[in-house]
Amino acid sequence: MGAAGTLKSQLLTVGCTSYITVTLPHSNMEKTQREAFRKACKSVRDWTTFFAARAMKYQDDFGEEATTEKYGFIIDLWKEMQDFELVRDQLLHVLMAGRDALASFLAWTFFHLVRNRDILERLKRDIATVPTEGDITRDYIRKLPYLRCCLNENCTPTLPLNLRFTNKPTILPRGGGPDGRSPVLLSKGAGISFSTYHLHRNESIYGLDPGVYRLER
């Protein structure tokens, strides 16, 4: 961090989630670096906008049913949000997180399944009801609640820590004061690093056995 600027951090606690406020590393970037960064962000957003707009146009031309077959995920987002910018942003989020995160998620799911043979056998019986002909639609997958439970119970996040930066002065409702329940003021450019590892093992949420692969929860 020496080349990027001095990193000043303060360990805080919000509920049971620890995080660190930091000085935004790229706040001291040269103007050309900031411009290049913004240009790269715009290119990625424009690329995602193109696909979201194409799906919306396809729906206008051919109707919702035909579009759902071709752009199922985008149309599902549209049905839920009814806001083009939100659809575009969610699509971008999935594309950015859909490689390493998905690979890690599937790896940990199989890790748990092969160590819990009774769960694996029941899951196999449920999946055996899926038609062997034609495409498997998202609607049909939703009819497999046991599969959803298996995926939801995979409480090992890809990244043990995550980081977000503020783009304007922000007040968090709690985290300050001796008891951690007072508001916290974060200046523009501050970062918050939160521990998904601890969040997914929080006993107040998951019970006294958060480390056990238990679908009943």
UniProtKB/TrEMBL annotation:
<dbReference type="InterPro" id="IPR002974">
    <property type="entry name" value="Cyt_P450_E_CYP52_ascomycetes"/>
</dbReference>
<dbReference type="Pfam" id="PF00067">
    <property type="entry name" value="p450"/>
</dbReference>
<dbReference type="GO" id="GO:0020037">
    <property type="term" value="F:heme binding"/>
</dbReference>
<dbReference type="InterPro" id="IPR001128">
    <property type="entry name" value="Cyt_P450"/>
</dbReference>
<keyword id="KW-0408">Iron</keyword>
<dbReference type="GO" id="GO:0005506">
    <property type="term" value="F:iron ion binding"/>
</dbReference>
<dbReference type="InterPro" id="IPR047146">
    <property type="entry name" value="Cyt_P450_E_CYP52_fungi"/>
</dbReference>
<protein>
    <submittedName>
        <fullName>Cytochrome P450 of the CYP52 family</fullName>
    </submittedName>
</protein>
<dbReference type="InterPro" id="IPR036396">
    <property type="entry name" value="Cyt_P450_sf"/>
</dbReference>
<keyword id="KW-0503">Monooxygenase</keyword>
<keyword id="KW-0349">Heme</keyword>
<keyword id="KW-0560">Oxidoreductase</keyword>
<dbReference type="GO" id="GO:0016712">
    <property type="term" value="F:oxidoreductase activity, acting on paired donors, with incorporation or reduction of molecular oxygen, reduced flavin or flavoprotein as one donor, and incorporation of one atom of oxygen"/>
</dbReference>
<comment type="similarity">
    <text>Belongs to the cytochrome P450 family.</text>
</comment>
<keyword id="KW-0479">Metal-binding</keyword>
